[in-house]
Amino acid sequence: MQKKISYVIVVLSIVLGLFFIYKGLNKHFLSPCKVYDATSTIPLAYQQVITGMCQSGMLKVVGFFQILSGVLLIIPRTRLFGAITLLPIIFNIFCLHLFLDNRPEELVETGIPLAMNLAILVLFYPKWKVLFQK
Predict the structure, then answer these.
(1) In this predicted structure, what is the pLDDT of residue 47?
(2) Do 67 and 21 meet the contact criterion of CB atoms below 8 Å apart?
């Protein structure tokens, strides 16, 4: 049973790590900041937040931490730290889509990585529970 759990952690960590390395590199090198036109069906509040984050450079900071978390998730020794580092990032992305975006597919696209990250943290529970003991 323990061996199956460790395989699940490895697979989830590698998939999630590669996904966030790609997303972080995408923010830095692969695609320019989004520019929305007047005919866009995306809510105005979401457009304004993304535009502000692009213009301020905040998306580059988020991208850096996505890359860092992805690399930490792939390295076996730092997997738990990578999952902990990624949690606030993916949670904020999910909340941004939940509260400002009206596209359900975006909730699925951000909810799956959030669920994967939470699963990694739950499966690592025996290792990090030591932090909260007396």
Answers:
(1) 86
(2) yes
